[in-house]
Input
Amino acid sequence: MKPIGILGGTFDPVHVGHLRLALEAWEALALEQVRLVPNATPPHRAQPGASAEQRLAMIRLAVAGHPGLAVDERELRRPAPSYTIDTLESLRSELGEERPLCLILGADAFVLLETWRRWQALLRVAHLVVAHRPGFPSQTWVARMGELLARELRARATDDPADLKRMPAGRILLFPVTQLDVRATELRRLLAAGRSPRYLIPDCVLDYIEKHHLYRAMDAN
Ligand code: ATP
Output
């Protein structure tokens, strides 16, 4: 049974770093689909610059027509805040006990996993696919994480995508995605300064941002 990928985030706004990660994971790991899951009130960070509806609209535009990419709105429909474990458990009960689930996340997010709600339960419900990210060389990951997470990593690490199909959850796959040093914070800063993020986000998303006057100076954070 092909695994389902889940890429959560604020997507404020969605950019080529997110989209290449989703697409490359879909192709390289032979996933059924990758669902982009925008969060409501992110527990770990300041409030986003665009509204939930606007972030959702931009993701919809970005993935429209792609057979392997989809949007999942469940975190926006739940009362905030969004916890990934709740999302995964809700997907698990919808998709059944057998279906492999892969939570895709960048190395910057992974090294902080121990701060997430019920983080050890995540590995009972899903595999983790940890994407390399510029500024986070893999030799430094262990030094940036706590001892418990380092132990989980040693016990569960794999670089073989076939392992993700052998069981529904519990492995940690290290994923060398194309390294794109793009981050939403930087894009918001560019826009607030009146500069163009063209070619770092899809044209359809940039058109939406311009049409709705998003991320102008007073919105920047
Ligand atoms: P911000 O700058 O606002 O923190 P971001 O660009 O990191 O935003 P998020 O919505 O926080 O975007 O990221 C969602 C997920 O996508 C996280 O797991 C993050 O690690 C990953 N991600 C974001 N940008 C990239 C990138 N350029 N390459 C690989 N992974 C990325």
Notes: The chain has a mean pLDDT of 94. The chain has eleven helices and seven strands. Strands lie at 4-9, 33-38, 69-71, 101-106, 127-131, 157-158, 172-175.
